From TrEMBL:
This is ATP-dependent 6-phosphofructokinase. Catalyzes the phosphorylation of D-fructose 6-phosphate to fructose 1,6-bisphosphate by ATP, the first committing step of glycolysis. One of its GO terms (molecular function) is fructose-6-phosphate binding. GO terms for cellular component: 6-phosphofructokinase complex. Its EC number is 2.7.1.11. Mg(2+) binds at residue 103. Residues 4-275 form the Phosphofructokinase domain. Allosterically activated by ADP and other diphosphonucleosides, and allosterically inhibited by phosphoenolpyruvate. It comes from Clostridium luticellarii. ADP binds at residues 21-25, 154, 185-187, 211, 213-215. The lineage of its organism: Bacteria, Bacillati, Bacillota, Clostridia, Eubacteriales. Substrate binds at residues 125-127, 162, 169-171, 222, 243, 249-252. Homotetramer. Its cofactor is Mg(2+). One of its GO terms (biological process) is canonical glycolysis.
């Protein structure tokens, strides 16, 4: 193998640039030729492929987003679209491909591997919803972004003696809500894995108010409902002013944290090692602080494990 390429696909995540940098510089250090594919699988089909050298990834480790840009591709989901992608890789002499993204991106990498393209996946998503790995690139930064918002909302909520419902991202995975809620001292954390009793929630809010608590902070994962609707219900039932804040895509942006930069660097280095060893259809991850790799099919079929103990700790400390 002489030439490898790297692309980012799906939703962007802080730390993707650090991963791109690690892939490019590790590959160059091992004497590979490196190409960058812009706009994910869509760009691959359209031949948006550029040469990359060490200067191509200079001064990006601290930047959020992805310099290769990202996009979703309906055409790539078709057999004809994937054939175009493989033909384009052959045209540019690409023998190995590193895909940085989430589960959808990994499924795409798996399909390419079935068509004799050596593929390695790096988990890049703020949702942290790939169960085979303890953490994905971007999760830690997103949690810290939410935590900063929670700290600010607590100040104004206390001043006005109101309930603040904060809606965070994560799709059907509640990790961003759980981690930021625990770190931010939220009174209630509502997760899709657990669900909640609205009447009990309102009762808890009233009890806290009657005990003299000046504010009440509720962190809500997007996969279980909307903050606006919940805030209206709380205000209607309790009579206490309630406001909703939907943080939205601000959680995707910003300079990656130290943890995400190091994680991305470790993942990128390992991905290139795997290609150098002739491996394909594998993904990298981290378990108990150690970098791991396993088959894409195996990784995508790992059952989701919810951290019940962390949730119990959050409730005990609320």
């Amino acid at each position: 193998m002489k030439t490898i390429a790297v692309l980012t696909s799906g939703g962007d995540a802080p730390g993707m640039n650090a991963a791109i940098r690690a892939v490019v510089r590790t590959a160059l250090d091992k004497n590979f030729t490196v190409m960058g594919i812009e706009r994910g699988y869509s760009g691959l089909i359209n031949g948006e492929i550029i040469s990359m050298d060490r200067s191509s990834v200079a001064d990006i480790i601290q930047r959020g987003g992805t310099i290769l840009k990202t996009a979703r591709s309906e055409e790539f989901k078709t057999e004809s679209g994937r054939k175009k992608a493989v033909q384009m890789l052959k045209k540019f002499g690409v023998e190995g491909l590193v895909v940085i993204g989430g589960d959808g991106s990994f499924r795409g990498a798996r399909e390419l591997s079935k068509m004799s393209v050596a593929t390695i996946g790096i988990p890049g998503t703020i949702d942290n919803d790939l169960p085979y790995t303890d953490f994905t690139i971007g999760f830690d930064t997103a949690v810290n972004t939410v935590l900063d918002a929670i700290n600010k909302l607590r100040d104004t909520s206390t001043s006005h003696e109101r309930v603040s419902v904060v809606e965070v991202m994560g799709r059907n995975c509640g990790d961003i809500a759980l981690y930021s809620g625990l770190a931010g001292g939220a009174e209630n954390i509502i997760l899709p894995e657990i669900g909640y009793d609205r009447d009990k929630l309102c009762g808890d809010v009233l009890k806290a108010k009657n005990k003299g608590k000046l504010h009440n902070l509720i962190v809500l994962a997007e996969g279980i409902g909307g903050a606006e609707a919940l805030a209206r219900k709380i205000q209607d039932i309790t009579g206490i002013e309630a406001r909703a804040t939907k943080l939205g895509h601000i959680q995707r942006g910003g300079s990656p944290s130290c943890m995400d930069r190091i994680l991305a660097s470790r993942f990128g280095y390992r991905a290139v090692e795997l290609l150098e060893n002739g491996d394909s259809s594998r993904v990298v991850g981290i378990k108990d602080g150690k970098i791991i790799d396993l088959d894409i099919d195996e990784a995508l079929n790992v059952p989701r494990h919810f951290d019940d103990k962390l949730y119990r700790i959050a409730n005990a400390l609320a």
